[in-house]
Amino acid sequence: MSKRIKIGLIGFGRMGRKFFTELIKNDKWEVAYICDISPEAREDAASLAPNAKITCDEDKIFADPEIEVVGLFTLANSRAGQIKKAIAAKKHIIAEKPVADNLESEQEVARLVEGSGLMVAVNLFNRMAWYHKEIMDFIAAGEIGDLAIIRICHMTPGLIPGEGHEYEGPPFHDCGMHYVDAARMYARSEFATWHSQGVRMWEYKDPWWVQAHGTFKNGVIFDITQGFVYGHLSLNQTHNSYFDIIGTKGTARMTHDFKTARVELRGVTKTLTLEKPFGDKKIDVLCDVFADSVRSGRNEGFPEVKDSVIASEFAWKMLNDAMSNELPVIGTAEELEQIRRRRQSLTDGYGLLKRPSAKTSKKQTIA
Ligand SMILES: NC(=O)c1ccc[n+]([C@@H]2O[C@H](COP(=O)([O-])OP(=O)(O)OC[C@H]3O[C@@H](n4cnc5c(N)ncnc54)[C@H](O)[C@@H]3O)[C@@H](O)[C@H]2O)c1
Predict the structure, then answer these.
(1) Which of 199, 268, 277, 293 has the greatest count of CB atoms below 10 A from its CB?
(2) 222 and 340 share a domain?
(3) Where are the beta strands (DSSP E) in the chain?
(4) Count of domains in the chain?
(5) Atom 40, ligand 1: which residue's CA is nearest?
(6) Rg for the chain, CA atoms, rounded
């Protein structure tokens, strides 16, 4: 068996811990460093990873010649600088999205990566999902006729204003860029037109729910609904997430409860229903594919920076379109305060950033 690939993780918050959990299960990897500026995160890292070096100084990771890969899981404001350091130090990179906190820097990062000869993956999890592969294979087999309409919805009682992720933008960019990316992945074309409507829930300055619709250059039509407004104060919370793909002859759709994904395929020769584990952010798949890519020297199927930058660009454009239209204000700042208080007391909920210490709880949160 070949030597384990040594990786240094920078950022040990919600996503850094998800990567850590998958990397230590995979014998292609060795987590050699964990870096975080938060003492609490470093304390958790030390108890979870006794064999790793724990540091608050990211430069130690970039300077260590034994480190082949860096995992960049801080917030978007530090990502471009860290990617530049990694490229200068000739380290391969697994990065969270977006790759920077503004489009100009994202495009600069894409140019640097392009000429670097290094492997750089971005965690666009839809591109690693078994259910999208099943649906795209079904479409490619001609079962739904010509692809015509892509309808995507993702609404949860997730991250609320002021909780974190400020550099990632409002939900339609922070989370919605995944669905902008997925629409483009299905359409196999570039965005041509779009119109968006949002709502300023609870008197907050930015829209926390946005719906965008439009066309691709090949004529395929899309609509994307994204919002972290879905019943925050309901006694028992739920979410509504689906892909609904409509062709000239058949349909393909998926939905999930964050545990199981259900795919329903209605084609001209086949009707199929598939149910398998949802697989959270598919980080296990990404880490495995990335290890194989580092060893083989070619991309074995991981999502690339250029796709992330395009998704980010059009998520901003659609969000900005919503901002330029009439934005109704519904709900009150008082309700938002009630939601904030409730989320502070939750240990198991949607998109909770502040995690309890590793010593006191191992509960997972969902998106
Ligand atoms: N791909 C996905 O599905 C997905 C889902 C959620 C979040 N994200 C992205 O992942 C990133 C991280 O999100 P999160 O939810 O884990 O946030 P988080 O706030 O839980 O974690 C960020 C961590 O980075 C640390 N940090 C910040 N700046 C640092 C620095 N300069 N050096 C070292 N550590 C630093 C913080 O102390 C914190 O522990 C965000 O950019 C977000 O957009 C992606």
Answers:
(1) 199
(2) yes
(3) 5-10, 29-35, 53-55, 69-72, 92-95, 120-122, 147-155, 191-201, 209-216, 221-227, 240-247, 251-256, 260-266, 271-277, 329-330
(4) 2
(5) 75
(6) 21
Kindly report the number of other CB atoms within 10 A of residue 207's CB atom. 25
Block means of pLDDT (10 residues each) for the chain, length 367 residues? 91 97 98 98 98 98 98 98 98 98 98 97 98 98 98 98 93 98 98 98 97 98 98 97 98 98 98 98 98 98 98 98 97 98 93 60 45
Query: Is the same domain home to 247 and 337?
Result: yes
Q: Does 14 contact ligand 1 (Cβ within 6 A)?
A: yes
* Residue located via tokens 């590793």: 358
Q: Are residues 45 and 161 in the same domain?
A: no
Ligand 1 binding pocket includes 72 (Cβ within 6 Å): no
Q: Give the closest residue (by CA) to ligand 1 atom 25.
A: 11
User: Of 230, 205, 203, which is closest to residue 336 (Cα–Cα)?
Assistant: 203
Domain containing residue 41 = 5-118
CA distances to 119, 131, 326, 351 from 303, rounded to whole Å, are 10, 16, 36, 23
Q: Is the pTM of this model over 0.90?
A: yes
Q: Output the residue whose Cα is nearest ligand 1's atom 15.
A: 14
Query: How do 221-227 and 209-216 pair as beta strands?
Result: antiparallel
